[in-house]
């Protein structure tokens, strides 16, 4: 998985957006502004 949302290719972003679990992560990412508390972090 991508360490930071938006770092990978657009195709990966589409796959991430399609994931229901990641929708909440994106919401947190947008609110925090930093992928510090995102479970997507590897």
Question: How would you concisely characterize the structure shown here?
Answer:
This protein is an all-alpha fold. It has one domain. The protein has 2 helices and no strands.
Report what the structure shows:
The chain has 42 residues and is mainly α. The protein has one domain. Helix content is 52%, strand content 0%. It has helices at residues 10-18, 20-32. The longest helix is centred in the middle third of the chain and has 13 residues, at 20-32. The radius of gyration is 9 Å and the shape is elongated. The protein starts with 9 loop residues before the first helix and ends in a 10-residue tail after the last helix. The mean pLDDT is 59.
Which key features would you list for this structure?
single chain; 42 residues; mainly alpha
Note the topology.
Layout: H1 10-18, H2 20-32
């Amino acid at each position: 998985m991508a360490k930071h949302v938006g770092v990978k290719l657009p195709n990966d972003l589409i796959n991430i957006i399609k994931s229901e679990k990641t929708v909440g992560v994106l919401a947190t990412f947008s609110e925090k502004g930093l992928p510090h508390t995102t479970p997507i972090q590897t």
